[in-house]
Write a structure and sequence with these properties.
This protein has 271 residues and is of the alpha+beta class. It is built from 9 helices and 8 strands. A 4-stranded antiparallel sheet has the order 1-2-6-5. Strands 3-4 form a two-stranded antiparallel ribbon. It has a two-stranded antiparallel ribbon with strand order 7-8. About 4% of the residues have low confidence.
Length: 271
């Protein structure tokens, strides 16, 4: 709470309340169904409180890495929208102390959710390659001491099939930390669609800035402009796009409509 991580604080507070309720209430009583439902959903696993991952912190060095991270955001947002649990729509598996969830969905469902326009076979092939590349993501590492750690892959199994010849089916096993990853998916759906390379880069930086737990979100526009090389007329369009994206976030009450712009010379402007 003192670090302004209010969403995480509320999550922890709710869990403490239900854990205490489980100890003092009779679970066999018909009026405690609400407690059992909560326990089935969350399983009291503290690893579900959010995932701090290096993917959001490291600088992307090439377009392939940027597209891979953007696809990960799309996929996790899609999974989050399904509202699945171990008791509804998917199965839960355990490897040692790590839990995984098995999901199956059609490629067309994923495309419809993201709003992508797939008109060519080459575009569909590229999307399927993105699913294949999910296993290139860094593993989840849990450090216990200088000599003790555990490492788990995020997606131990990924399958793509087109048995009917008409539709692709995607099957994945996803680590529990990613399955319950709550941040940063409070964004308009337009943020999950990339029109072209610079649009993807811009939205990726918005997503990374929003993914932090702190209430204060920082977006380094200067860093973004330093990596793109476009003529002045395109630069004007990008600036208008930035304003439009900020307006969308404010209209959806994801950010406040009061912004602080820090100029290169150090001065601040309040909008």
């Amino acid at each position: 709470m003192f670090q302004n991580k209010l969403e995480l604080f509320e999550d922890l507070l709710a869990r403490k309340y239900f854990q205490y309720s489980e100890r003092i209430l009779c679970l066999d009583y018909s009026y405690t169904d609400w407690l059992l439902n909560f326990k089935r959903k969350y399983q009291w696993d503290t690893s579900c409180q959010g995932l701090v991952t290096s993917y959001l912190e490291k600088r992307m060095t090439n377009t392939e890495e940027e597209e891979r991270l953007f696809h990960l955001f799309q996929l996790l947002s899609f999974i989050n929208s399904l509202g699945l649990t171990a008791f509804k729509g998917c199965q839960k598996y355990q490897i040692k102390k790590q839990f995984y969830y098995n999901l199956k969905f059609s490629l067309s469902e994923f495309i419809d959710f993201t709003g992508m326009k797939i008109s060519k076979q080459s575009q569909r092939d590229k999307l399927i390659r993105h699913f294949k590349q999910l296993q290139k993501l860094d593993p989840i590492v849990k450090e216990f001491s200088d000599k003790s750690f555990q490492s788990y892959v995020c997606f131990p199994y990924i399958g793509c099939q087109n048995l009917s010849g008409n539709s692709w089916t995607i099957e994945i096993f996803v680590a529990q930390e990613l399955f319950y990853f709550k941040y940063p998916f409070q964004v308009p759906k337009s943020f999950l669609i990339s029109i072209q390379k610079n649009d993807l880069r811009l939205k990726l930086r918005f997503l990374r800035s929003l993914a932090v737990l702190e209430r204060k979100k920082v977006l380094d526009i200067n860093e973004f402009f330093n990596i793109i090389n476009v003529p002045n007329n395109h630069l004007t369009k990008i600036k208008k796009n930035i304003i439009q994206l900020l307006n969308e976030l404010a209209e959806n009450r994801i950010i406040k409509n009061k912004l602080v712009v820090v100029l290169k010379i150090g001065k601040k402007k309040v909008w």
